[in-house]
Design a protein that fits this description.
Largest sheet: 8 strands, mixed, barrel
CATH architecture of the largest domain: Alpha-Beta Barrel
Number of strands: 29
Structural class: alpha+beta
Number of helices: 36
Distance between the termini: 125 Å
Shape: elongated
Strand content: 15-25%
Number of domains: 5
Radius of gyration: 55 Å
CATH superfamily of the largest domain: EAL domain
CATH topology of the largest domain: TIM Barrel
Length: 927
């Protein structure tokens, strides 16, 4: 290193060394500008810029060398051989142009290394050929180590310099590239000059020589031209950048406005300048991360190694557009199948401004396409293994191909129906082989025309042909775009049998095989319609089994099913033409018959009745009987539904009779049943119409003589019937299930009323057994308390023993959940059930209410008084308060006080009255 510095200091004119370095830096700056300008230009102008850049750089490097040579002082008078001087110029020009072309068109690492070797080698060759052109009275002896070092300094730095030129676009990277290239050239020259050792000798060359003055003029001219080229390249690059920036702004507005597909805006070198929200979602990068990234980073490693990004950009640059498909990589490493298009963007002057890349995620389409291709690749195997017979015909109705299944369906030999056969010949062969008989030409032609009709009109259903019960075939045809058409043949024999079986199941009972309700109704409607035309009658018999539930409960459902099957078999065997027997569900059967005189009906009923004289299920002494109710069209009803209803009424009359189990419908019978049904219908609208209201009866503490609470009592003011007793309508509400809705209304209204009282009296509300068995009762109580604002400790729910007995486990579970809310639970009508003590033992009730029937008899019946004393003693021993209902006299009150009863209610203390929330009513009750 020291020898190089000494060479520069002692053997060179230090005024020319900075000039050489400046010219060199100007040269390399020009090279960077022209190479980058070529990447932003169209194809033709890009080649021109590349060649011009190579020539300008070559001239500049040559000028740098000879400026430095002019400053070299060997101590002798020297000249320059014209041939070798021009040869050195030609070498550097050719090598520099070649290196720039390689670097411009192929940006991989290998290509950049090759370009570095070509350029650096050219620089070194120029230097040493130029040294050979030096003519002086001395001979040059070279030091090999410095020669090798100079060549290395010329080649190695060029790789990072070219990398920054072709991969970067910013000004700092361009300046860094120019500076590195300048260092390489200067390092080459002065290291090469240090390798010189001069040995004096005589000057004897006869070649033409140039003087240093002439060489100065040539070098000066080259330097001025180089400076002009540098300025021109800078101005061109500046205009291009401005155009690109303007275009990018316009494109950015467009790109960001579209979100349903991924749009990338690329600069001329393929780096991301902007993109839209669709691209951000697809690739997974934020906008700040992706700006400036080369678009090749979205490619897979295999595609990058194959140079596909460069090829795509090059084709888009040259042809204006490039489209392709392939796997792409997201930020998180996941892959998707993309269809993308790269389009060239030009300015008004035709110059390249950048590219637009549009990408769509086609992963699902690719998967479907792969499946289709896989299926297509296995077409032969699929044809041979498909369950349908298939024939492909050309436009002239000649067979192109068929599969093996087609021959199997029609019992054809393998050498039959080969490609080239006419459609009529195939129909003839198939029908003959399947039927075993010759087929007329007329039948063949009819089959052909039918098949072609479905081909011309795709809306027509497939052709279905039956050949006995063992072969039913469905034929479908479909036209192809190229004029050919496909016919498929499906054996639907099993499907038809399954459909028939399903249809049979839809109209028949699964257990007994008898017609079901739908089938029975259909038959009945048809026979009623025919009877109205023929002037006949139709008898309907409703049959309900007696004691069947006892068999299910004692012997199990399997035994019950056997009984039902036995009865069904007997009824079915008894039926004749014009008659039907059916199972409507559970233990309900029905039978019907059209007839002309009563003797036929009597015989029909007798045969049905005889079916139950057989001891069906007589195990354990339980014999199943039946109650029969009979209604006749048109005498008893004019349509099916009224006829069924009247037969049911007659059947229920027979079921309630002790001595008759067959009953005929009579006009005016069972008016109470009709009345109850009408009452049930009216009850459904009672709440909405405001017909229901609540009265409140006070409950008094016998210890403090103060009102302790009120019991909510439901009343119904019917618009036509007047006041309907709860004893009458509550059972109906429970039967119909309406009690659930009404009970919820009563609970809500009573809680809302009690919440307005200024005292802490409790409100007692009765719960029906139907309500108690509802799984959501605890949640309903909690929500009503929250809604009305009533404290849980002020609500008392009254239940009867029968409510618990219906489903003891579920009822007690529900009561425990209600009690955990803080609500009191009282047992109403205590002593009237058969297991009151067991019920009391099963649940910790908060109160016991003695049924009023005991108190009403207490003044005349010693047994009643004894029961009252026993209940009160039981309450004391269990520490459970006792309330007595039905107090009407002073004597009854005295008995309760004497026996230590806690509370009482009855007419003696007050009748049920409207809501006491007005205040005065409450004060009167307390007084």
């Amino acid at each position: 290193m020291l020898e190089i510095l000494l060479c520069v200091r002692d053997e060179h004119d230090l005024r020319l060394v900075p000039l050489a370095a400046a010219v060199c830096l100007l040269t390399t700056t020009t090279a960077v500008l022209m190479l980058r300008q070529s990447s932003l230009s169209q194809r033709a102008s890009a080649h021109l810029w590349t060649v011009m850049g190579g020539l300008a750089t070559g001239f500049g490097i040559w000028a740098t060398h000879f400026i430095a040579m002019l400053g070299y002082d060997p101590g002798f008078i020297a000249g320059y051989k014209v041939g070798l001087t021009l040869g050195s110029l030609l070498i550097v020009l050719m090598s520099t142009v070649a290196a720039f072309v390689v670097a411009r068109h192929c940006r991989t690492a290998g290509c950049l290394i090759a370009a570095s070797v070509i350029a650096g080698g050219g620089f070194a060759a120029m230097h040493y050929v130029g040294m050979a052109a030096l003519e002086m009275p001395a001979r040059i002896q070279w030091q090999a180590s410095y020669v090798g070092l100079s060549v290395a300094l010329a080649i190695v730095p060029l790789y990072p310099a070219l990398f920054l030129v072709v991969r970067g676009k910013a000004v700092p990277s361009g300046l860094a590239a120019a500076l590195i290239m300048a260092v390489a050239v200067v390092g080459l020259h002065f290291t090469g000059m240090t390798a010189i050792h001069l040995i004096p000798s005589h000057m004897h060359s006869q070649a033409m020589l140039m003087s240093p003055r002439t060489m100065s003029v040539v070098i000066g001219t080259v330097s001025v031209a180089l400076l002009a080229l540098c300025i021109a390249a800078w101005l061109a690059a500046r205009r291009t950048r401005a155009a690109v920036a303007a275009s990018e702004r316009q494109l950015s507005i467009l790109v960001k406005g579209i979100s349903d597909c991924a749009i990338y805006m690329l600069d001329r070198s393929g780096r991301v300048a902007n993109w839209n929200a669709g691209a951000q979602r697809l690739e997974g990068y934020d906008i700040d991360e992706v700006l400036g990234m080369p678009f090749e980073c979205f490619y897979t490693e295999e595609d990058r190694m194959a140079g596909l990004p460069e090829k795509a950009l090059s084709e888009a640059r040259d042809c204006g557009k490039f489209s392709a498909e392939g796997w792409r990589v997201r930020k998180d490493g996941s892959r998707f199948w993309a269809h993308f298009t790269i389009e060239r963007i030009q300015g008004e002057d035709g110059k390249l401004l950048g590219f637009v890349k549009i990408t769509r995620d086609m992963t699902r389409f690719k998967q479907d396409q792969d499946r289709i291709e896989e299926a297509s690749g296995n077409l032969d195997a699929a044809l041979e293994n498909m369950q349908h017979g298939l024939c492909l015909f050309d436009a002239e109705e000649r067979l192109v191909l068929r599969n093996r299944r087609f021959a199997e369906l029609w019992n054809l030999p393998e050498d039959s129906c080969l490609p080239g056969w006419a459609l009529t010949d195939i129909i003839q062969a198939a029908l003959s082989a399947k039927t075993g008989m010759s087929v007329t030409s007329e039948r063949v032609e009819n089959a052909r025309l039918t098949l072609l009709d479905t081909l011309r009109d795709p809306s027509l259903p497939p052709i279905v042909s039956e050949y006995g019960t063992n072969f039913i075939v469905s034929v479908s045809s479909r036209q192809l775009p190229d004029g050919r058409w496909v016919a498929t043949f499906e054996d639907i024999t099993e499907r038809r049998r399954s459909e028939e079986q399903i249809a049979h199941m839809a109209l028949h009972d699964g257990l007994t095989g008898m017609p079901n309700r739908a089938s029975f109704n259909r038959w009945l409607d048809k026979e009623i319609e025919f009877a109205s035309v023929r002037g006949q009658q139709v008898a309907l018999v409703a049959i309900d089994l007696d004691r069947f539930k006892e068999i299910n409960d004692s012997q199990g459902h399997a035994a019950g099913d056997r009984v039902l099957q036995s009865i069904a078999g007997a009824l079915t065997e008894s039926a004749r033409d014009g008659e039907i027997v059916a199972r409507l569900g559970g233990d309900e059967f029905a039978a019907a018959k059209y007839f002309s005189d009563t003797a036929e009906l009597a015989d029909f009923v007798a045969r049905l009745n005889a079916c139950f004289e057989i001891p069906h299920g007589a195990q354990d002494g339980i014999a199943v009987g039946a109650s029969l109710g009979i209604a006749v069209y048109p005498a008893d009803a004019q349509a099916r539904e009224p006829l069924l209803n009247n037969a049911d009424l007659a059947m229920y009359r027979a079921k309630s009779s002790l001595d008759e189990h067959i009953c005929y419908y009579e006009h005016g019978m069972d008016e109470s049943a009709r009345y109850r049904r009408q009452l049930a219908n009216d009850l459904r609208q009672a709440v909405a119409r405001g017909e229901l209201h609540i009265l409140y009866q006070p409950q008094r503490s016998l210890k403090t003589n103060q009102v302790s609470g009120f019991e909510a009592l439901l009343r119904w003011q019917h618009p036509r019937l007047g006041i309907v007793s709860p004893v009458e309508f509550i059972p109906i509400a429970e039967e119909t299930g309406e009690i659930v809705r009404i009970g919820e209304w009563v609970l809500r209204m009573a809680c809302a009323e009690a919440a307005q009282w200024g005292h802490d009296q409790k409100i007692a509300v009765n719960l029906s057994p139907v309500q108690l068995l509802k799984a959501n009762l605890p949640e309903l109580v909690a929500s009503i308390l929250l809604e009305t604002g009533l404290s849980a400790r002020r609500l008392e729910l009254e239940i009867t023993e029968s409510a618990i007995i219906a489903d003891k486990a579920r009822a007690l579970h529900s009561l425990r959940k209600i009690k955990s809310l803080g609500v009191s639970v009282a047992m109403d009508d205590f002593g009237t059930g058969y297991s009151s003590l067991d019920t009391l033992h099963s649940f910790p009730f908060d109160k016991i209410k003695i049924d009023k029937s005991f108190l009403l008899r207490s003044e005349t019946n010693e047994q009643a008084r004894a029961i009252i004393r026993a209940v009160l003693a039981l309450g004391k021993s269990l520490n459970i308060p006792v309330l007595a209902e039905g107090v009407e006299t002073k004597g009854q009150l005295a008995l309760l006080i004497g026996e230590g009863c806690d509370e009482a209610q009855g007419y003696y203390f007050g009748h049920p009255a409207p809501a006491p929330s007005a205040g005065s009513a409450l004060e009167v009750a307390i007084a």
